[in-house]
Write a structure and sequence with these properties.
Length: 258
C-alpha cells in the first residue's frame, strides 16, 4: 500500500488553471473525491475514463474518511480534489489528521486560489512599492467564528491589501467595517466565480458594496478585494516604479549604469 492519498488544489475553476502535478494525479487516479459544491465537474476532464468520481458535497467528515480509508486498503490511487488551494479554507487538516491516525499517508499538491485568479483577471498587483507590501487573507465572523485577534475590524485597521473570503452572507457588515477603515469612497472589487464561464468582476465604492453585489445577484462563491492595490488597478493613482528594474539600482545580478 504505497500510494498516499493525494489532496490536490483544483484552482479557481478553469480546468487549465490546475497545476501540471495535480493534473497528472487526476489522470492516474482510480477514484477522485471532489468538493462538488465548489469544484466544477469540468475539472474531471483530466481523469481517465475508468476512474470513479464521487461528489463529497453531501458527505460528512466521517463518511469521507471512511471512503478514503477503504479505497486506500484496496490499494487504489486516490485524489481528494479541493477548490482553489487546499491550504486556504480547505478543511484538509481534519481529514489528514484522521487519516494519519489510521496510519494512512497523505501528500498535498497546491493550487491557485481565487484571489490570485482575480488579480490576474484584473491585471492587478497586490504589492506596490512603498504603497502596500502585505496581503491579508481573511473572512468575517459568521456561523463559523474567527479568533478575536483576527476579527475583520482588527485586520482592516492595517489598511493593507486584503482578500475577504466566505463573507457574502454578511456583506452589510463587511461594508461598514471597510468604510470605517479604508474610507467609504475607496474602491473595492468583488470577484465572482473567477475563471468560470460565469466569471464576473465588479468594482464599486465601498459605501455601495452591499447594494452592488445584491444588484448583481452575487451571494456566494465570491471574494472581496480591497486596498490601495485596487485603487491603482482602477487608475486612481500611479504607483512608484519598482527598484528591481531601475537602471540606477544595483544588485547582485546587475551593476548600476551610473
Amino acid at each position: 500500500m504505497s500510494n498516499p492519498v493525494i489532496f490536490a488544489g483544483a484552482g479557481p475553476g478553469d480546468p487549465e488553471l490546475i497545476t501540471l502535478k495535480a493534473r497528472n494525479a487526476l489522470a492516474n487516479a482510480d477514484i477522485i473525491i471532489y468538493a462538488g459544491s465548489l469544484v466544477p465537474r469540468a475539472l474531471l476532464i483530466w481523469k481517465k475514463e475508468s476512474a470513479e468520481a464521487v461528489n463529497s458535497a453531501g458527505m460528512t467528515l466521517d463518511s469521507i474518511v471512511s471512503l478514503l480509508a477503504a479505497r486506500y486498503r484496496d490499494e487504489q490511487k486516490i485524489v481528494r480534489l479541493h477548490t482553489g488551494d487546499p491550504s486556504l479554507y480547505g478543511a484538509i487538516r481534519e481529514q489528514i489528521q484522521a487519516l494519519e491516525d489510521l496510519s494512512i499517508p497523505c501528500r498535498v499538491i497546491p493550487g491557485v486560489t481565487a484571489a490570485f485568479g482575480a488579480a490576474a483577471a484584473m491585471k492587478m498587483e497586490f504589492t506596490l512599492p512603498e504603497i502596500t507590501q502585505s496581503l491579508i487573507f481573511t473572512r468575517i465572523s459568521g456561523r463559523t467564528p474567527v479568533p478575536e485577534l483576527e476579527s475583520l475590524e482588527s485586520l482592516a485597521a492595517h489598511k493593507t491589501s486584503m482578500a475577504i473570503y466566505l463573507s457574502m452572507d454578511h456583506v452589510d457588515r463587511v461594508e461598514k467595517i471597510l468604510s470605517d477603515h479604508y474610507g467609504e469612497d475607496s474602491l473595492a472589487a468583488v470577484a465572482f466565480k473567477v475563471s468560470h464561464p460565469e466569471e464576473k468582476i465588479i468594482t464599486t465604492l465601498i459605501k455601495n458594496l452591499s447594494k452592488a453585489v445584491k444588484d448583481e445577484g452575487i451571494d456566494r462563491q465570491a471574494v472581496i478585494l480591497v486596498g490601495r492595490a485596487v485603487e491603482a488597478c482602477a487608475g486612481n493613482f500611479s504607483a512608484k516604479k519598482s527598484r528591481l528594474y531601475d537602471a540606477a539600482f544595483s544588485h547582485v545580478y546587475r551593476t548600476s549604469g551610473r
